[in-house]
Each structure stands twice: as structure tokens, then as C-alpha cells.
């Protein structure tokens, strides 16, 4: 079998990363091997993000950056795929001559065959089934349990790009998780566009709690973490399962987007502000050490000063450990882009700055409360005499680190678990010492 080097630039969220890993898996059984440097790659794939305007700009910048390797490197084929090309396929065909092949978000096998045809002039018949080429460090991986979304929030283009929710059958997910664990993965992060609605399309009801229970039974997994839940399907049953299973991190990412009832309705967010308050209070009352992460949108069309103050008040009265905020971005084809009352950019930015300054104080206070406590930590990186670690309270790629100063000659293995006592705190990172 001929061999061809392929470079992958994966942009956007962890769901997109899984797409990239599946594409690399399809290519691997056809004789393609990863290139360590894009300069050496004969095929370069840019898997784009098209979620908000800034992501689109970053995606196009990456395409232009990779295009230079057609002159300066070994690149014979520049491929653009993913959310941006799914959404703007016709426009990119006309306006992006740098790309030799433009593809959407689905049919990874078809993409691999198209690349194979362009490189070798034919399509092979692989002798084995493709498997994801995991691109995260060997000890952690993502498990995507569904793709697409049925929520139809008025600001969001994801359903226009990926369609409605399609859950993966539970037995297939358990098999995939077992294979990852056998391959050395000890930290598994469960993801989807809406993880807490998992299974409604297959089983007629949410089945995330049952799935997590089964994942916790996999012997070689040490931590199982949950991202991208949707408030209306986060309930006491789900929280009870997370609290009861030692392998399930007491951590949930639950984007609320806002707390004002009128704006939640305008966003077409299912559920209610009352439920958000109630489930937040329930989580805190059942387990004070449970980590709450969320996102919020400021400057949604029609948001008044009073409604923004209500959001600030909610986080003051119901403090979340982590808050990511976005200024509202009008997306083509979404109902919100056509709404009256679009907020000036200066007002959006001012509200964003106020929210994040307030949250920095809340996060700092929460981190300082951890000083003196001992945590099991996972070593993520060793650099310049410091071990960058995470506990159950820090998700990879989105949260801060617990930093441990190393003694001379000490070099703990990445992926190993140790215990550390917190000695200092900042708003995002903490400092610790081994015990």
C-alpha cells in the first residue's frame, strides 16, 4: 500500500475534534499517515468551525495559512471541511480558490475516498474497519454520544449545519468507551451538542443517567466528565447518579445563556428560569463541592439594562465556579438575526466586560476557599520545572490548572495521578505542593 502524509488542523469545539479523528481513521486504512509538521504533509485538511463570526474568521485565516504550504512545503491537496464549508459551500467554491476540495460535516468515508481519488487516481477497498485516530494525549479522550440538535435556539446555526439530534445507541458507546480504556484512556469526557437530551430520539426519554452508570463500570476508566448539558433535562436523577458514582466527576457544564424569562423565551430556550434556579440550588445543597460551569450571552436583541442586571444578580446569588460569556453574534438564517432591537457593539462589549470582571471575583473567591485542601490530580504537562495538573474540578482545554513546582530532577509522568495540597489561588489557576 502506498503511503501519504496528511496534516489535520481541527478548529472549534471538541465535537469537531471527534470528526477530525474519525476522518483520520478513514484515511489511515487507506494508507495515509499523520504528518508531524504541515510542511511535510502532502494533504492538509482544515476542519473548520462556523459557530460565530469570530470562529469563521479564524477558520479562513487557518485556510490561508495552510495554503502557503502548497508553495513552501509538500502539500498537493488542501481540503476544507467542517461546519463553515457545510454552511457556505457554494460561496466557498467561488471565493476560496486556495482550496482544492471542499466538503461538509458528514460522510467521512466519502471524504476519504475523494481525497484518495485526487491523490492516487482511484479508490481502494480497505481490509479493515476504520477506527478513530485519537488526537488528545494518550490518557484522555472525548466520547461523542450524539450529533445535531433539536432545540432550535433562535440565535444558533448548529441545527442548520448538523441537523437534528441523532443519538448513538448505548451499546455502541459502551463498546467504544471500553476500546478507549483498553488503549490507555483513563479520563473520558462525554460530549454532544446537548448531552442531557441523549437518547430521546432512540428511547423516547433521556437516558444519560443510565449511560453514565454503565460507563462508570468500565474498570480502567478513572474519571468520567460531562460537558454541554441543557438545563431543562438536567434533573435530580442525573445529579444523583453523578454524586453516587465515584468515577463520575462532580462537575457539570450547563449553559444557561440567560436568566430573564422574557429573553429565554425569545431565545427559544426550553425550560424555565425557575428550573435553572431550582436545579442550581439542588446541586449546591446535595454537594457543596460540585463544580458548576456555564455560558451566558450578553447583548441578545432587545436585552435591556434591567434584564442584564438580572443576569448579574443571578450569578451573585447563585455563584457558578466557571462562567464563559459571549457577546451576541447575529448568524445568517437564524431568527434572532432578524429581530428588532439589535444591541450596539459598544453596549455588548461593556456588558461583557462587567460580567467577566464580576465573575473573576467569584472565581477567585471559590478558588481561595480551596486553599489547604488535598485533591487527587492528573498530571497534564511538565514544563519549565512545573507540573500542570487538573483535579475533578478542572476540565481539559476549558478550565485552568493546578500548578505544582517540581524539585530538581523530578519529572512526573503525564497521565499519572497524584495527590496535592492547594497552597495558593488566582481567578483561574491554583498552586499546590505534593503530599
TL;DR?
The chain is an alpha/beta fold and 435 residues long. Helix content is 36%, strand content 22%.
Notes on the structure:
- With 435 residues, the chain is of the alpha/beta class.
- The protein folds into three domains: 117 residues, Methylthiotransferase, N-terminal domain (Rossmann fold, 3-Layer(aba) Sandwich); 229 residues, Alpha-Beta Horseshoe (pyruvate-formate lyase- activating enzyme); 61 residues, OB fold (Dihydrolipoamide Acetyltransferase, E2P) (Beta Barrel), CATH 2.40.50.140.
- It is built from 15 helices and 18 strands.
- Strands 6-9-10-11-12-13 form a six-stranded parallel β-sheet.
- The longest helix has 24 residues.
Number of domains: 3
Separation of the first and last Cα atoms: 52 Å
How much helical structure, as a percent, in the residues?
25-40%
Question: What integer value in Å does the Rg equal?
Answer: 22 Å
What is the averaged pLDDT score? 95
Please, how many helices? 15
Task: Please count the beta strands (DSSP E, at least 2 residues each).
Answer: 18
Structural class: alpha/beta
Beta-strand share of residues: 15-25%
Uncertain ranges: none
CATH topology of the largest domain: pyruvate-formate lyase- activating enzyme
Amino acid at each position: 500500500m502506498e503511503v501519504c502524509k496528511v496534516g489535520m488542523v481541527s478548529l472549534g469545539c471538541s465535537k469537531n475534534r471527534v470528526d477530525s479523528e474519525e476522518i483520520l481513521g478513514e484515511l489511515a486504512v487507506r494508507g495515509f499517515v499523520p504528518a508531524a509538521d504541515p510542511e511535510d504533509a502532502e494533504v492538509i485538511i482544515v476542519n473548520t468551525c462556523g459557530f460565530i463570526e469570530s470562529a469563521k474568521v479564524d477558520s479562513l485565516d487557518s485556510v490561508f495559512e495552510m495554503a502557503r504550504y502548497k508553495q513552501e512545503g509538500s502539500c498537493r491537496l488542501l481540503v476544507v471541511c467542517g461546519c463553515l464549508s457545510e454552511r457556505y459551500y457554494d460561496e466557498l467554491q467561488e471565493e476560496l480558490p486556495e482550496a482544492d476540495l471542499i466538503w461538509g460535516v458528514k460522510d467521512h468515508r466519502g471524504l476519504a475516498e475523494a481525497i484518495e481519488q485526487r491523490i492516487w487516481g482511484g479508490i481502494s477497498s480497505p481490509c479493515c474497519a476504520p477506527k478513530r485516530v485519537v488526537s488528545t494525549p494518550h490518557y484522555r479522550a472525548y466520547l461523542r454520544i450524539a450529533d445535531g440538535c433539536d432545540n432550535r435556539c433562535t440565535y444558533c446555526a448548529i441545527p442548520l449545519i448538523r441537523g437534528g439530534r441523532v443519538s448513538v445507541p448505548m451499546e455502541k458507546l459502551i463498546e467504544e468507551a471500553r476500546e478507549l480504556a483498553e488503549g490507555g484512556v483513563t479520563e473520558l469526557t462525554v460530549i454532544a451538542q446537548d448531552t442531557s437530551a441523549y437518547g430521546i430520539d432512540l428511547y423516547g426519554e433521556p437516558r444519560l443517567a443510565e449511560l453514565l452508570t454503565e460507563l462508570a463500570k468500565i474498570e480502567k476508566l478513572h474519571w468520567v466528565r460531562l460537558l454541554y448539558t441543557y438545563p431543562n433535562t438536567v434533573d435530580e436523577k442525573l445529579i444523583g447518579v453523578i454524586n453516587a458514582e465515584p468515577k463520575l466527576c462532580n462537575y457539570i457544564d450547563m449553559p444557561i445563556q440567560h436568566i430573564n424569562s422574557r429573553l429565554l423565551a425569545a431565545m427559544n430556550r426550553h425550560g424555565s428560569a425557575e428550573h435553572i434556579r431550582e436545579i442550581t440550588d439542588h446541586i449546591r445543597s446535595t454537594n457543596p463541592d460540585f463544580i458548576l460551569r456555564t455560558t451566558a450571552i450578553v447583548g441578545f436583541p432587545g436585552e435591556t439594562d434591567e434584564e442584564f442586571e438580572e443576569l448579574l444578580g443571578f450569578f451573585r446569588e447563585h455563584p457558578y465556579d466557571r462562567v464563559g460569556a459571549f457577546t451576541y453574534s447575529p448568524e445568517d438564517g437564524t431568527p434572532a438575526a432578524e429581530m428588532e432591537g439589535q444591541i450596539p457593539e459598544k453596549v455588548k462589549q461593556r456588558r461583557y466586560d462587567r460580567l467577566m470582571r464580576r465573575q473573576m471575583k467569584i472565581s477567585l473567591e471559590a478558588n481561595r476557599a480551596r486553599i489547604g485542601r488535598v485533591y487527587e490530580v492528573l498530571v497534564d504537562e511538565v514544563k519549565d520545572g512545573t507540573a500542570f495538573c487538573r483535579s475533578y474540578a478542572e476540565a481539559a482545554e476549558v478550565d485552568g490548572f493546578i500548578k505544582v513546582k517540581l524539585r530538581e530532577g523530578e519529572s512526573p509522568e503525564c497521565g499519572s495521578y497524584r495527590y496535592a495540597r492547594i497552597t495558593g489561588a488566582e481567578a483561574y489557576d491554583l498552586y499546590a505542593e505534593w503530599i
